[in-house]
Prior knowledge:
Helix content is 25%, strand content 40%. By secondary structure, the chain is α+β, with helices and mostly antiparallel strands. The radius of gyration is 29 Å and the shape is elongated. The model has no long low-confidence stretch (mean pLDDT 87).
Amino acid sequence: MMKKTTILLAFVITASFFTACKDGGSAVKKVNQENLENAASRDIEIKKGTALISLDKTIYDFGTVNEGDLVETSFVVTNSGKTDLVITNAQGSCGCTVPTWPKGPIKPGDTGEIKVKFNTNGRPNRQQKTVTLTTNTEAGRQVLTIKGSVTPKAK
């Protein structure tokens, strides 16, 4: 009895496989041509390799300034890769460090500028702040540093 049930179950499962594609179409006919074209262009981009970021500097030492001064600097970014470099975010380590960055893609060989402003008000003595860039490079991020000394206000 058990053997007959197993054989019957195997027959039902096999029959369901043969009737599953009964709509008359083959898998080849169901492939969306637009998806194939999108995949082909994506594959071409992938073969170019990732974007590479090159910077004129990663650390800026602003020396000694007085508390209350606004320190500003620029970091020059060059795309040394073979595909567009995209910086999706630039985040300062605190509210006193404010970056601005190119919002559009940087083409291979082109440059962009990341400006960083550091407000020294309420931040006396040695300071070191960072800006973390989120990018489409292989590493996915790059850290920029500004540092220096802030002379406290006279009390």
